[in-house]
Each structure stands twice: as C-alpha cells, then as structure tokens.
Amino acid sequence: MTEPHDDASSAPGVEGLVLSGTGGVWRVRRADGSVVEASLRGRVKKSNAGRRADGSLRRDTVASSAETLKLAVGDRVELEQDAASGAWAIAEILPRRSRLARRAPGGGQGERIVAANVDQVVVVFAAANPEPHPRMLDRFLVIAEANDLAARIVINKVELTGGVEATRARWIDYERAGYPVHYTSVKRMEGIEALHDALDAAGQHLITICAQRTVARLSSFIFHTKSSIPRKNCPVRSVCVVGGPLPFSPVAKRNRSTRRCKTL
C-alpha cells in the first residue's frame, strides 16, 4: 500500500514544543507563545524499520514496534495546518538533544520515554506525610544517571520532621554521593529562595518528577513562585511535572487508582 501524500491545502510547517497529550490530542506551544491542539499524522506513528521487499512498512514485528519513535512531552515538532479546516497536525518529530527514558513496564522490550529534551531532573519528596521511600528515590536517580542527566533532590515539609538539621540526618548519604539536596518548607516559606537561586544559576529547562501526589500539588508553587514575582515572570522556562508514583513503587501497588500525568 502506498503512503498517501500530504494534502496540498496544508499550510507550511511551523515548529512547536509538545506540552501534554491525551486521547491522541497533543497540546503544542508555537514559537509565538500560542498553544494549539494537534493530532499526530499517521505516517509519523509508523516505524522506518521492518520494511518488506517492496518497500512497504511492517508494523507487526516486535523489533519494528520497539524502534518506532514515540512522541513525548518536551519533543520539538513540526506542525502543519489544514488551510480549509484550520486543524493542526504534527507532521514530524524533530531530533532530540536528550531524553528521560526507563525500561518498558511488564517485562516488555524497548523503553518508555518519559520526556524529551531534558537538561536536569529534580526529584521532589516529602520528609513526612506521606512517609518517603528512599528506594523509590534511588530508582529515580538510577534512571537519571542511565540517561546521563544531572539530578538534584528536594525534600519538602521539613517542618514535620524537626526542621532542616533533623531532616538532613536522614538524607546525608545523598549529599555525600554528590547530589545537591535542598530542604524546603512551603508552609513556612523556608528554603524556597535558595532553591530558586540554584535553579536560576543552572539556567536550564527542567523536568520535575514528583514521587507523591501531595508533593505534585506543591511542585508548581515551589518552581513557579518566587516571592511576589508573578508566575509569568518566573526565570524557570519549562517544568515537566510527572504526578503520582511510578508503577513499580510501593504507593502504586497499594493504591491502584493513583493517576499519573506528564505536562509542561
């Protein structure tokens, strides 16, 4: 079967950044700052591997499926707009400068892309309520290291564990291992300015991984609020929030209804 050509009524392509996606509809921010909803063109979903002798694509092989480039939050894409309907479509996934990926769940082949074009990983945990799981933190750090991404740790709610010094004793091994560890209290506004200063100094796009749902609700405040400065003027340019525990975590095993999301 021959791959259909693009409709001549499509407008010239423009570049955009994928912010989130659900149900086959992706929110993409264009260069002018506007956000549009776009679908993924059928040809982009297909693999360039596993071709038959006549040149047609095979999608019924494990290898072909594993090598298909999957769209992810943080991807830079080329958009095309249909001149007649005004609908937007993602025509191409542009080359990635980096990615955050983990092994495919359930023992499957290949990997699962969490986010694309990432510069560093910030893992946010609560010091208490809910009880933190160091093994879960270790897994996040291993994933970051496996993807050659710098990582830093934020321990929030230190007011529940006796303050910074009392909390630090539990996490000192991560400092000794060379990871930057920030101790914060959103409730008391402690450590927030120091965290912002560190993020400003990095001058990078950030991906924030929230391992607990309660921390996920606080992440936007930690990363977007700086004293009285409005959110739109925050120096942190992009934050990808992954809410809820990963499937392999003890929290996910206890609470099957926990939802996870990825959005910039």
Topology:
Layout: E1 14-22, E2 25-30, E3 35-40, H1 42-45, H2 62-67, E4 76-81, E5 88-93, E6 99-103, E7 111-116, E8 120-126, H3 134-146, E9 150-156, H4 164-176, E10 181-183, H5 192-202, E11 206-210, H6 213-224, E12 239-243, H7 250-254, E13 261-263
Parallel strand pairs: 3-5, 8-9, 8-11, 9-10, 11-12
Antiparallel strand pairs: 1-2, 1-4, 2-3, 4-5, 6-7, 12-13
Task: Explain how this protein is built.
Helix 4 links the parallel strand 9 and strand 10 (181-183). The chain has a 6-stranded mixed β-sheet with strand order 10-9-8-11-12-13, with helices on both faces. The protein is built from 7 helices and 13 strands. The longest helix has 13 residues, at 134-146. Helices cover 24% and strands 28% of the residues. The protein has 264 residues and is α/β, with parallel strands linked by helices.
pLDDT averaged over residues? 75
| Highest CATH level, the class of the largest domain | Alpha Beta
Q: What would the principal axes of the Cα set say about the shape?
A: elongated
Radius of gyration: 21 Å
* β-strand amount: 25-35%
| Number of helical stretches of at least 4 residues | 7
**Which quaternary structure do these chains form?**
single chain
Output the strand order for the largest sheet: 10-9-8-11-12-13
Structural class determined from secondary elements: alpha/beta
Helix and strand succession? EEEHHEEEEEHEHEHEHEHE
Q: CATH topology of the largest domain, what is it called?
A: Rossmann fold
Percent of residues in helices comes to 10-25%
The description of the largest β-sheet is: 6 strands, mixed
DSSP strand count = 13
Low-confidence stretches: 1-8, 226-237, 243-260
